[in-house]
Amino acid sequence: MSGTTNDVRDRRAERHDATRAEIVAAAWELARDHGLGDISLRDLAGRVGMKAQSIYSYFDSKDAIYDAMFAEGARAFLERSRDAFERRSDSDDLFEVLRDRAEGFTRFCTDDPVRYQLLFQRPIPGFEPSAEAYAPAVEALDLLHQRMTRHGLDDPAVVDLWTALLAGLTDQQISNDPGGDRWLRLVDRAVQMFVDHVTKGS
Amino acid sequence: MSGTTNDVRDRRAERHDATRAEIVAAAWELARDHGLGDISLRDLAGRVGMKAQSIYSYFDSKDAIYDAMFAEGARAFLERSRDAFERRSDSDDLFEVLRDRAEGFTRFCTDDPVRYQLLFQRPIPGFEPSAEAYAPAVEALDLLHQRMTRHGLDDPAVVDLWTALLAGLTDQQISNDPGGDRWLRLVDRAVQMFVDHVTKGS
DNA sequence: GTCTATAATCTGATAGAC
DNA sequence: GTCTATCAGATTATAGAC
Q1: Spatial separation of the C-alpha atoms in residues B98 and A171, rounded to whole Å
Q2: What is the mean pLDDT of chain A?
Q3: pLDDT tens-digit series, residues A42-87
Q4: Tens digits of per-residue pLDDT, B155-189?
């Protein structure tokens, strides 16, 4: 059994992975058009030129597709977090570092509200991301903790206040001015407010 | 036509309204159990001892039920806003007023996350609240504007920063620590941060 | 106002031929 | 790996008897 050469097996695996990626990409498109919860396997298959039943050759269930989407989003989030912190790896200016991170985060979220919804609001009843899919998101939050500690902000409450501030700007922007910049414009000001607060008395 | 007495007509209307209210109450229960988007007319009717089709004697469509829920939530929100501002109607202490309002708002939202979701996040594809249902929410936001202006905060950006701060605390609490108080504990601190910021230099 | 009956359609998922 | 055929349901909504 399995007496095939490495060449053959790689080509098959590559095609399989490519098709999986194609399905996930089509799922994002559908989610953006009809809402995250309203993806049907029939519509999804139609977009990639298949019948619904053929999807099961690539994913065990509908939730497995959501899990792949979550994993992709979480990896993108980690990558952007890394970029943002590395770009300012030499900076000791707290405001500069946090403003960069805040602008990166809010743009990441408002660029793709559906991805934001899936990653940070979990609106699909019964779906919980797997530990593997979740791991990069945890790592990204850890990067934030590390960087804040480097600036002397090791109080967990301070980190929570920071995440709340970013979540609020993002949420208001997406919910009440989609496509606009009414709350995005306030990012600098909000970061200044936060920095003033945490450096108060020093 | 309509030769009935006022008594008879009132009793009928009262019963009709009471049943409508019963249906809406059951819809809230279902939404809390299964998620806002997963209310089916069959389940809903079952809760009030009816068949699904009988619901149509009280509501023209499923969206009309969501609209009634939205209206109820918006009225409750306006009522709480009024209470909060009236309780401090004589106070000139900005921190005191805003802390009261912030605690009231975050508790209102975290007490009933599904109501928060319906009122402030609009997660049901294809549903938009009617103007009548929406009106109390607009009025509540207007109360906030008036009160802030009274304290010299007439910059719209300041009001937006305030709503973002509250939305962020609420959203993080509901999404990442449901039933707990990890972000609710930060309300006072967040309000102090905000007040320090807007009174800076005065 | 509530019911039965039913329309018309969608859903995720499985079995088995090729 | 893709298909046909099908299951076993769900869904909102309407027509018409009582």
Answers
A1: 21
A2: 94
A3: 999 999 999 999 999 999 999 999 999 999 999 999 999 999 999 9
A4: 999 999 999 999 999 999 999 999 999 999 999 99
CA of B128 to C1' of C6 (A): 30
Are the Cβ atoms of B160 and A172 closer than 8 angstroms? Answer: yes
User: b or e along B151-186 (b: 16 or more beta carbons within 10 Å of the residue's beta carbon)?
Assistant: bebeeeebbbbbbbbbbbbbbbbbbbeeeeeebbeb
- Report CA(B130)–C1'(D9) in Å, whole number: 34
Report the distance separating Cα A58 and Cα A43, nearest Å.
16
Best residue in A159, A171, A189 to probe B by mutation, most B CBs within 10 Å? A171
Following DSSP, what letter does each residue of B128-172 receive, concatenated? ---HHHHHHHHHHHHHHHHHHHHTT---HHHHHHHHHHHHHHHHH
Residue A1: CB atoms within 10 A of its CB come to 3
Across the interface, of B122, B160, B168, the residue whose CB is closest to A165 is B168
Give the residue among A29, A137, A26 at the shortest CA–CA distance from A73. Answer: A137
Shortest CA–C1' contact from B57: which nucleotide? C1
C-alpha span between A193 and B158 (Å, rounded)? 12
Q: Residue B90, exposed/middle/buried by CB under 10 A (0-12, 13-18, 19+)?
A: exposed
CA→C1' distance for A5 and C14 (Å): 33
Mean pLDDT (whole number) for B83-93: 90
Residue of B nearest to A125 (CA): B35
Write out the DSSP string of A121-155: T--STT----HHHHHHHHHHHHHHHHHHHHTT---
Under 8 Å between Cβ of B197 and B98: no
Is the pLDDT reported for residue A166 higher than 90?
yes
